[in-house]
Amino acid sequence: MKNYDVVAIGELNVDLILNGIQGEPTVGKEIFAEDMLLTLGSSTAIFAANVACLGSKTGFVGMIGKDVFGTLIEASLTEKGVDTSMLIKSSKYASGATICLNYNEDRANVTYQGAMDHMSYDDIDNSVFTNTKHIHLSSVFLQSGIKKDLLKILKSARENSVTTSFDPQWDPNEKWDMDYKEVLPYLNVFLPNETELKFITGSETLEEGIEKIRPYINVCVVKCGRNGSILLQKGKADIKLDAFLNNDVVDAIGAGDSFNAGFIHAFVKGASVEEAQVNGNLTGAVNTTAAGGTGAFTSAEAVKKIAADRFKKSLIL
User: Fold this and answer.
1) Distances (CA, A) of 212 to 3, 95, 141, 181, 266
2) How far apart are CA 231 and CA 259, in angstroms?
3) With CB atoms counted within 10 Å of each terminal CB, which end of the chain scores lower, N or C?
4) What pLDDT digit, counting tens, does each position of 179-217 carry?
5) What burial letters (b/e) apply to 180-217, b meaning 16+ CB within 10 Å?
């Protein structure tokens, strides 16, 4: 019997989100924001909190500092139903933090990596690979240790019949130095957005990027924001699925991570990948109805109700 449905391995930080910003920052000048929120941040943490909210038994492997932000991160994950017993607490490095300047459906981020940049495969207890059905990874460009050991993690998962998913996220250094031809065959589900896919493959267009990864994927879902998503499967026709549009967006922070949560929750529960794609589009839309990446995910019933009331669609739970 597996202890977890999903284990998230990755970065941990807090998000300090500023909304209603009066213009763009300029060095040497000061501007105002109308609203501030300090909350659990990081792509992997938002995914873990939201997939746990949907009902997947979820654990987290990540490194935090022994500081106020680390305490907030641990408490927030625990409150969301995520098992934090595998967190690694560093005395040497501070917890990571991201300042998010939020402009409607776009944002500018400044991140201090801190402890999360120093975790590697050697810090991960090997029992993780036997105690879960699925492992999700994200944001490797923020984590030099995990990026270096990504293939080792994926191979260990496969050796133990554990399925895997991976969302690369943005590369702050804009080097995009990931060998997708080597990595993708070991992944069950690849979850980039269209911009990330183009940069990782060195492509001018989304279509070019898709054709470059097609020989190497098992399943890939390309997230296209308000244009929905594209499901790619080996040997099958692509499926383009329109987004469930919210015309009253609070903010879009964590929408992609919430898509991942909806997709992987359905996938681990045994739904088809076509059904999982619908679930992902739906949870991504639900995310935009509240502030912060986890704001709309207060309970499975609450998410189900938003899906039904706002988007007229049933959620897979």
Assistant:
1) 37, 37, 21, 9, 27
2) 13
3) N
4) 999 999 999 999 999 999 999 999 999 999 999 999 999
5) beebbebbbbbbbbbebbbbbbebeebeebbebbeebb
Q: Quick one: average pLDDT of 140-163? A: 97
Q: How many CB atoms lie within 10 A of CB 230?
A: 19
H helices present in 55-149, as ranges: 68-79, 144-148
Residue 106 phi, psi (nearest 5): -135, 170
In the predicted model, what is the mean pLDDT of the chain?
Answer: 95
At 3 the three-state DSSP class reads: coil
Sign of CA dihedral 47, 56, 274, 137: positive
Please give the single-letter amino acid code of residue 57. K
> Within 13 A of 149's CA, how many CA atoms are on the CB side?
17
| Burial class (CB within 10 angstroms; exposed 0-12, middle 13-18, buried 19+) of 295 | middle
Please, are residues 21 and 3 in contact by the beta-carbon 8 Å criterion? no
CA distance 244 to 310: 9
Phi, psi of 191 (to 5 degrees): -130, 60
Closest by CA to 193, choosing from 229, 240, 247, 139, is 229
Quote the CA–CA distance of 233 and 210 in Å, as a whole number. Answer: 11
71/82 Cα distance (integer angstroms): 14
CA distance 129 to 118: 20
- Pick the closest to residue 17 from 101, 80, 95 (CA basis): 101
Q: With contact defined as beta carbons under 8 Å apart, do 315 and 282 qualify?
A: yes
**Is the confidence at residue 294, as pLDDT, over 80?**
yes
**Token pair recorded at residue 284:** 């991504």
